[in-house]
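job 3f2a | input accepted
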Amino acid sequence: MNRYLSIFLLCALCACSSSSGEKDLVPPEILPVEEYISPTNCQEYPLGTFLPVACLFTDDVELGSFNLEVHNNFDHHTHGTEAGECRQDPKKDPVNPWIYNKDYKIPAGQSSYEVDLKIPIPEDVDLGEYHFMIRLTDASGWQQLRSVSIRLIEALD
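job 3f2a | predicted structure (157 res):
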């Protein structure tokens, strides 16, 4: 009976290890692309334009996916990753806030992945303070979060 239990445990341990024998113990990183990362804290974007997203993702083993999110900050909450305080309007209730939340899959086997996207900003959403968030997850489940404050302003004429 002990022999069967030993074989079972050995098989279970082999099934849990990575194919290369590496254990991923390091979270992925969100880095600038040649010293350029976008958006940065406190930037302003007019309604009807685009929110540029540019950064580099890296991991010591393999990347998995990322999520981009935009939500209002009319109540002045924080996420603890902002680079500093931006000018704040008085607190207000949202009427028609911009809500963006999209998952992106990174092709299998990648340990580096460059993001260069332009997210359309609707023309008819509430002006004011928003949070832009990146959640990066590697293939092992480790996660990195980056959050910055942005401001939506009147459309340019």
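job 3f2a | The chain has one domain: 26-153.
job 3f2a | closed
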